[in-house]
Every structure is written in C-alpha cells, then in structure tokens.
Amino acid sequence: MDADIHVWGIGNDIMGDDGVGIFVAKMLRRLSPSNIKVRICESVPENFISKSTMKDIRKLVIVDAAQMSLPPGSMRRISPIEPQSFISTHGLSFLRLLNHSAKECELIIIGIQPAMTGFSTKLSPLVRRAARELIKMILSGRLCEIPPLTS
C-alpha cells in the first residue's frame, strides 16, 4: 500500500535545534504508522528529489528549522511559492527544484523556529516540545492548525 503522507526531515542533528526535522522524522519512523513514509534527508534534501522519487508522492510534508524571527519553538506553514519569507540552512535552489519536481503533489513545509544552532546533539526544550506536538499533529492529520508564516 502506498503511503498517504511522505515526511522528509531536514537538518543537521549535531547543530542543536537545526536537527529538529531529523528528530521528527526519526520519531515518526519509530512509531511506524502504515500511512506515512519517512525520509531522513539531513542537510542534503536535493539528493532525494528525482522523477522516480516524486512520481508517487501525493502529499509531502517537509520539516526543518527555520529562522522566522519568532519565539523559539514557534511552528509555521511556509509557502513553497514564497520561500524568501524565511531563512533556511538549505539553498533556495532546493525549493525551486522541489517545486518543479513536485507539481502533482501537495507540498507542506513546516518550519520550527530554533532557539540555538550551535554545536550540540540535543534539542532545546522549547523546540523539543514543538517537535513532539508536530508529530501528534502529523499523526492526527491536523497540520492545517499550524498558522501560515506571514511576512
């Protein structure tokens, strides 16, 4: 059976809160919901974009730390059409490539505001709490409750 949702965790898990996307992906993988396929993309998400990868994806949720000038742990849905509204550690070329390759799928980008992105293998408490809440929202299909990022 094909997955209903694909979740890609992006980040660097030795740079503190920058690893929040990987944390979410690992937790979802551990829970093994049958309707969710998880990929841990780390800091090279562009390596996972190809015609063969994208052809069967109908709903793709990307989770990453994002500098959005919000309080730490804040979550926002980020428009894939207006990626300049936040700062990612990944180039905008990744989002352009994804937009080009994912024309047939619903693309949802979830950014979590980091508290710290220095060398550390742990998430800050606020970001860990947000990540756990996001996992519950993904599992229960409540991503629409996350407010959009507005400029």
From TrEMBL:
Coiled coil: none annotated. It comes from the Bacteria. Gene3D superfamilies: HybD-like. GO terms for molecular function: aspartic-type endopeptidase activity; enzyme activator activity. Transmembrane segments: none annotated. Pfam families: HycI. Keywords: Aspartyl protease, Hydrolase, Protease. One of its GO terms (biological process) is protein processing. NCBIfam families: hydrog_prot. PANTHER family: HYDROGENASE 1 MATURATION PROTEASE, HYDROGENASE 2 MATURATION PROTEASE. Belongs to the peptidase A31 family. This is Hydrogenase maturation protease. It comes from Acetomicrobium mobile (strain ATCC BAA-54 / DSM 13181 / JCM 12221 / NGA).
